[in-house]
Amino acid sequence: MGLLDRLGVELPVVQAGMGGGVAGHELAAAVSDAGGLGTLGMLPPAALRGALQQVRSATGRPVAVNLLLPFARSAHWEVAQDADLVVTFWGRPVRRTSGVWLHQCGSVEEALAAREAGADGVIAQGVEAGGHVRGKTAALELLARTHAALPSGYPVWLAGGIADAADVREALAAGADAAVLGTRFLLTEESGAHPEYKRRALDGGPTLLTQLFGAGWPASHRVLPNAATQRWLGGDPVEPAWLRGLHRATAPLLARAPDAVVARAAALQRPGSPLLGPQPPVAGGPDGLLEAGPLYAGETVARISELRPAGELTRKLAAA
Ligand SMILES: Cc1cc2nc3c(=O)[nH]c(=O)nc-3n(C[C@H](O)[C@H](O)[C@H](O)COP(=O)(O)O)c2cc1C
């Protein structure tokens, strides 16, 4: 019996966790209710608890919670314990839950470390992905290498570059147990992304793989251009070395800053100021983040031209 069957998930379509309010309860509930697996993106613990309760009251189907390891505190893990599974990302994989746990990986080495640490499965993330990008290998190639390195039957889900039913079929035919989609679900009616962020994403790529929005989290991420990328990068995705140094030096402090301080800093973020953090623009949040924050998007953004309702999309993605 596969992991999805064990969890009671009908369709091999997984909506990726997208933090900071992009993948909230409306999106996760719509995907899960349609038979896929919805995932709540990371929020402060009380908000995450509230979102999980909202999903539970909207659907009886399983739901996942995503935790970013550099920021996950005990209170986050307590909430995650009440989800049907936890997906972790970014950092040394360590089992912190007695429930079902998957770790999203950017390399074979990381997938092996996750299995060693007791993960029930891994998500292989290709470099095409939107948001934070862990590795440098294309998704299908990473899938093949990961399969070759892990025992047969060990669950491997695939993320990165998947946007339509043909992509889902290709991922499954290549041996993935499920397809994980972020950018496609960003562009749904239920995602919490700022409406103008959605509009710009519908206009398409090219995307940039950069570390520009690295205050508090110096790591690579794929974004659409805006005033901040124009100001600091111009046409070159590599940010100035001093800026990278500044983000590295301030990360330990900023990663532990109270949630209210982080929210305030995001509201004050300006394209011309170098302390650019990872909060994307969300509906009801500061409009300034449209030009001063990260517009996360994967390479598939160039192929997506309309917002869809998430439940209908989930079923279409799984259509044979
Ligand atoms: C807007 C956005 C936000 C993201 N935020 C997170 C996150 O908070 N945690 C996480 O594990 N992955 C995050 N990701 C990455 C996804 O988990 C996934 O790897 C990626 O979306 C797959 O590639 P795709 O965008 O081509 O579908 C994010 C992706 C996007 C597009």
Explain what this protein looks like in three dimensions.
- By secondary structure, the chain is an alpha/beta fold.
- The protein has 14 helices and twelve strands.
- It has helices at residues 3-7, 25-33, 45-58, 74-80, 108-116, 139-149, 165-173, 183-186, 195-203, 227-232, 241-255, 259-268, 289-292, 310-317; strands at residues 13-15, 38-40, 63-68, 85-89, 100-105, 121-125, 131-132, 156-159, 178-181, 208-210, 221-224, 295-296.
- Helix 4 (74-80) links the parallel strand 3 and strand 4 (85-89).
- The protein is globular, with a radius of gyration of 18 Å.
- It starts with a helix and ends with a helix.
- The mean pLDDT is 95.
- Bound molecules: flavin mononucleotide.
* Beta-strand share of residues: 5-15%
Main sheet specs = 8 strands, parallel
The percentage helix is 25-40%
What is the global morphology? globular
Please report the distance between the alpha carbons of the first and last residues: 21 Å
Rounded mean pLDDT score = 95
Rounded Rg = 18 Å
What would you call the structural class?
Answer: alpha/beta
